Amino acid sequence: MVATFLIGMLLSIARLDSAYATTSAPTPSGGSETAILVIGDQEFDIQYTINGGTLEERMTADPALKTLLVTISSTSDGNLTIGLPTEAIDAEDNEFSVFVDGEFRNFVVDELKRTADARVLYIEFENGTEEIEIVGTSMAREEDEEPEPAPQTFSVEIEDRSYDIPYKVTGGFVQSVSADIESKSLTVSISSNTSGILALWLPTEMIDADDEFSVLIDGQAANFTELDSTDDARVLQVEFENGSEEIEIAGTFIVPELAVWQFW
């Protein structure tokens, strides 16, 4: 079960190093531009066309998170067509995940072309949009980059059944996790020494939500990203600030007993 979870994890948060791409001065909406994406000693041409706004001069990519972040200045509803070299970023056996200002739904994303060398995405956005995040399953890495560490695992016994949960955290460490059946929630106690990210792969037979989970950090509503959702598990990524102590994840279902996670 753990092996399946580890294979299925879309994102790794072992490091938060950033690569960057710079572009020439933006042309009027509708013009075609080329961005040079730099990852370590490697450079990739990123062809794009944007209508309804302009692409900012800086584009960031995180090889560890396998994520490309496009910052735009939108002046009306519009669209972005972007060609992604598969050497730079790819999504094997499935589609890319695309988030517009942190939202996964309610906009149009089409893959216009797919070859062995490149994939072309068409993404619609609304006036006021600022960020488009493209998440794949593989990304070019710096040549001297060390292999990513394996995810850690914690386990819980509920009614004589053990649940193994892979997780990764940056910016601190997890101290404990408790489950409350009344609030149908998990509370993760962390010790943070800088801003960071917690990613959890949650079995749906243990905790689930009819639609989206609710996440609180130290009692305040917090943004999070659902990286993947299957019949068996859901992957959540939660960003936290330095000094954060408690992350609460609330669903609509949880196994019918109070349980405290034990780390192995």
Protein described:
It is a single chain. This protein has 264 residues and is mostly beta strands. 3% of the residues lie in helices and 60% in strands. It folds into two domains: 19-139, Sandwich (Chondroitinase Ac, Chain A, domain 3), CATH 2.60.220; 151-263, Immunoglobulin-like, CATH 2.60.40. The chain has one helix spanning 2-8, and strands spanning 19-23, 32-39, 42-62, 67-85, 89-90, 97-100, 109-114, 118-125, 131-135, 138-139, 152-158, 161-180, 185-203, 207-208, 214-217, 220-221, 224-229, 233-240, 246-250, 253-254, 259-260, 262-263. β1 (19-23) and β2 form a beta hairpin. Mean pLDDT is 76; it is low at 1-20, 22-30 and 257-264.
Structural descriptors:
disordered N terminus; single chain; 264 residues; mainly beta; disordered C terminus; 8-stranded antiparallel beta sheet; Immunoglobulin-like; 2 domains; 1 helix; Chondroitinase Ac, Chain A, domain 3; 10-stranded antiparallel beta sheet; 3% helix
Can you give me a brief rundown of this structure?
By secondary structure, the protein is mainly β. The protein has 1 helix and 22 strands. The N terminus and C terminus are likely disordered.
Ordered list of secondary-structure elements with their pairings:
Blueprint: H1 2-8, E1 19-23, E2 32-39, E3 42-62, E4 67-85, E5 89-90, E6 97-100, E7 109-114, E8 118-125, E9 131-135, E10 138-139, E11 152-158, E12 161-180, E13 185-203, E14 207-208, E15 214-217, E16 220-221, E17 224-229, E18 233-240, E19 246-250, E20 253-254, E21 259-260, E22 262-263
- CATH topology annotation of the largest domain: Chondroitinase Ac, Chain A, domain 3
CATH class category label of the largest domain: Mainly Beta
Count the E strands. 22
Strand count, sense and barrel status of the largest sheet are: 10 strands, antiparallel
Cα Rg: 20 Å
* Topology order in helix (H) and strand (E) letters: HEEEEEEEEEEEEEEEEEEEEEE
Low-confidence stretches: 1-20, 22-30, 257-264
Write down the oligomeric state: single chain
Mean pLDDT over the full residue set: 76
| Approximate shape | elongated
Portion in strands: over 45%
Query: In DSSP terms, counting alpha (H) and pi (I) runs of 4 or more, how many helices?
Result: 1
